[in-house]
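Deliverable D5.2: sample structural annotation.
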Amino acid sequence: MGRSEPLSRTSEARSRLLATATRIFYTEGIHSVGIDRIVTEAQVTRATLYRHFPGKEELVLSYLDGIDQAARDQVNKAQADGRPARESLLAISRSIAGDIGSPGFRGCAFLNAAAEYPDPTHPAHQAVLAHRQWFLETVTGLLERAGHTRPERAGRHFVMLRDGAMAAGCLFDPDLIGETFLHGVEGLLRDPAGAGAPQGK
């Protein structure tokens, strides 16, 4: 029985494949990138790729999972040290604005993926919906803790502000978009009771 490949080497190959796929999928789109391009740039063989990912779909789902985990880490960091909910929301908003202003920003990876996988039953589309539901529930919970009397509506408002900023951030001046987004969030937080807003949730 031959010796198996060292775990560190296989883990390194998988990490390199995923890092390469993440970079190219985000900057150029998912459907436009083939397996040959990924294995070439990751400097691995096709056999190595298929040893870690049975097919491109599994690689795409791992890409989305990695983006999801990065977002969760970002949100967890914003809530660190037991800071008040309002400060956590502002910290999350500042990190989003920072992403918009970062080099190579190409919009929201999840909205981009949803556009490429419009079928709501596709696993990639389902991954997008799961991520968005988590984010909505997280923001809504923070708004409730911050004293907003209509946190569900405010949470949806926050997510729409975020979506608009992420979409516009790769089309217009990202600094201006980030500033406008933060201004919108601050306005939402200045009206915790929903004063003057239409009735309903």
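Annotation notes: The CA atoms of residues 74 and 81 lie 14 Å apart. The longest helix spans residues 56-78.
The annotation will be released with the project's public dataset once the embargo ends.
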